[in-house]
Design goal:
eight-stranded antiparallel β-sheet, alpha+beta
């Protein structure tokens, strides 16, 4: 009986979070790591990568409504951009959830508005942007988007 209870409590429960995957550590990535190490981490954890818009970009399709775009510079991971596409009404809720996480994890941001949160006083810099303007072309189709980007600002 004790073994069954231990197994029950050790089993991970599915997360109801829409944004908990939107962090480099979820993929065992660190801004600044080598491209080879980043690709190895992704592939060893079962993720498939494909070329992005350029040779220095890799994309991971996390799910139909989620993606991860990695940008490399001089064979080092410069940025990790997490994109969540959701119904327009759910996008602000996802932004609020991510904002709550960032506030807890990183403290007060340098800038916070209804659609943008910016931490540029830490490394890596972190930016969360909500795209849910009802007048936009994307929103006309009923789609909102949350983008969270971790990046090194150095050129």
């Amino acid at each position: 009986m004790i073994a069954v209870l231990a197994l029950f409590f050790a089993t991970a429960f599915p997360s109801t979070s829409k944004t908990s995957w939107m962090r480099p550590e979820s993929f065992h990535l660190t801004i600044g790591m080598s491209r080879a190490a980043a690709v190895h981490e992704l592939e060893s954890n079962g993720w498939k990568t494909k070329r992005g818009d350029g040779e220095n970009q890799l994309v991971v399709d996390y799910a139909d409504d989620k993606s991860l775009t990695l940008q490399f510079e001089r064979e080092r991971l410069k940025s990790a951009r997490f994109e969540l596409f959701t119904i327009l009404q759910e996008a602000p809720k996802a932004f609020d959830e991510e904002w709550a996480y960032l506030r807890e994890a990183l403290g007060k941001p340098r800038m916070k508005s209804q659609k943008i949160v910016l931490y540029d006083q830490i490394l890596p810099n972190v930016m969360a942007v909500l795209s849910a303007d009802p007048k936009s072309e994307q929103a006309q189709k009923g789609v909102g988007m949350l983008v969270v980007r971790y990046y090194d600002p150095a050129k």
